[in-house]
Amino acid sequence: MGRPRVLSGVQPTGALHLGNWLGAIRNWVDLQDSHDTFFCVVDLHAITAPHDPARLTDDTLNTAALYLACGMDPERSSIFIQSQVAAHSELCWLLNCVTPLNWLERMIQFKEKAVKQGDNVSVGLLDYPVLMAADILLYDADLVPVGEDQKQHLELARDIAQQRINARFGNENHPVLMVPKPLILKEGARVMSLTDGRSKMSKSDLNEGSRINLLDPPELITKKIKRAKTDPERGLEFANPDRPETDNLLGLYAILSGKGRDAAAQECADMGWGQFKPLLADATVAALEPIQARHRELMADRTELDRVLDNGRDQAESVANETLERVRSAMGFAKRR
Ligand code: AMP
Ligand code: TRP
Questions:
Q1: Which of 282, 217, 277, 291 is nearest to 68 (CA)?
Q2: pTM greater than 0.85
């Protein structure tokens, strides 16, 4: 038995923000020590909403560079671009043909996004979770580290693997696909908006001031934190249901300063906002500084990034093609000769 396998990905739409880092990417980095890790930039998912072709390549490479800058290590992980491994699209089709339509119609994220897109909803948006299932199932992933909002999509991937593929096309001793589990880590699992402590920090929020992007310059970070919503009370604390902003900002400080929740809560218990905000701003700027420096380096000379992504693609392809062949064969397709 090898080490347990992990796969995850982020869409190259909009800039990555603190929520993506603390809720997702940071955890992936730690998993590299103990797991066999695959991380992709899911550019095929990015076109499920209207997109700008002039920006897709840049956004994709920028996101990949941020993976590396955040500590994903190409020596220990396969880092690749989803659309460059054709097996993702092909397995998606095979899964499409066994996935009931009503399973997709009840996906919460689909319903939310469909409302936003109005008349323009594509078949791709409905199919988004099946493509995600293909991403995961191709690598026989044991664990999929994602934020809480992706839990329903993970359940769907499990149901497709178990009920629609293994039950129909495999037998008890030889399951066709591995059934993955979600890995949702508590700390940082939900970073909230700077302008509303009750809603998630999100790429799609129209208000730029609601989020801190990983590539925001220090002055902008300081400005956004200065303007962040607060409340009239003095002193910061966790878990007061009437003070969601306080909980969120103190939580960010605990993680970004590296001090941890207990020490941060103690330090800030009697602090006024005027004293706390510059502290949080400094901690944020300092935490992001090395990521930004590494990102600049990688984007200034593309040689290393290209090499990493070519290698990652080759490694991903060899695993993915093997799984795809297993599914094709179980479903009765003629063997490629
Ligand atoms: P998205 O920005 O929706 O493409 O999400 C990419 C990854 O980051 C997913 O695993 C999300 O669950 C995670 N994520 C996005 N926003 C947040 C947030 N505000 N807090 C924690 N995790 C998040
Ligand atoms: N839907 C995921 C998100 O928005 C992104 C994603 C696509 C993904 N394919 C995946 C995450 C496979 C984990 C595994 O966050």
A1: 291
A2: yes
